[in-house]
Design goal:
This protein has one helix and 28 strands. With 329 residues, the chain is mainly beta. The strands form seven sheets. A four-stranded antiparallel sheet has the order 1-28-27-26, with no helix packed on it. It has a four-stranded antiparallel sheet with strand order 2-3-4-5, with no helix packed on it.
Amino acid sequence: MPRNAFPVLAFVLLVSVVAPAQSVVANIPVSGPPSGVAVSPLNNKIYAAVHDSFTGAQALAVIDGRTNTQVATVPLPAAFLVAVNIRTRRVYAAGCNFFQQFPAVCTLSVVDGESNELLTTIPISSGAFIGVQGLAVNPVTGRIYVSDADNSLIDVINGSTNTIEVSISLGGQQPLGLAVDFVRNRVVVAINGPLMAVIDGRDNVILQRIFVGASNANVAVNPVLKRAYVTNETFGPPSTLGVVDLENFTVVTNVPVGSNAFGVAADPISGTVFVTDIFGQTIFVIDGRTNQVVATVSVFGRFIDVNPIRGLAYASDDFAQTIHVISEP
């Protein structure tokens, strides 16, 4: 582990700010319908993948978390999902240009989170069907993980060289959402269907496949509670959030969360988990220690991420062209 990783990670895990009862505290207009959203808590910036509804051009919207305003737009070849390395403050946007051509060209773009400069673009061999469906970063190792769903691969990118080190085969199974347990150096994959996979980040081998839901979509990890949270996108009630013990590789419970659970984010400090229910136009707030729904927020959200330092969640609303800011309990 790099020496300077410890203070950054310790700061994120130990500092918290008291927030009011959960509610929508702000609505941030962005320059196009947003999809993936990611938070950089140390400099209080939020990044959203946006596209132009008419031309299909894609970009990264940069939001100042202090003023809740979009302060910059970085044009990119493709942007559907976003992830941040909290240590290096590099921002990664992955996607395919389905809006502009088919078969699509898929890429991972690397952006400097301080200057908002596009540093490089890495080709991803996907795009014939559903393209890139997952993106996650390990801030300790600096590796970036991309779901190449069309080829049933997880591409592992070296964050120092910006090159693909290896591609992990899932044996014909489609990887969707990704999350990283940086404490144990593991990657968690929501597989299209009922399975979730856990990958060893050292050897790039699959440690376990676990039956969780019926139609898994996205996943989040709380490394403190040693839990993974998988949305079961059933397209009808009861949709569920699968809670998985990452030590024993067992399903702890499935929490009912409306009719179309999709996006999920976990706060490692408070233990709170946020789940977006697309059909119900509701965000479920779950206590990660009791696995109980403690609140619902009546707002549409597709993807969601959380700032654990400020106790705020950010949900992308592509219909209203807005990022909703939600306070934690």
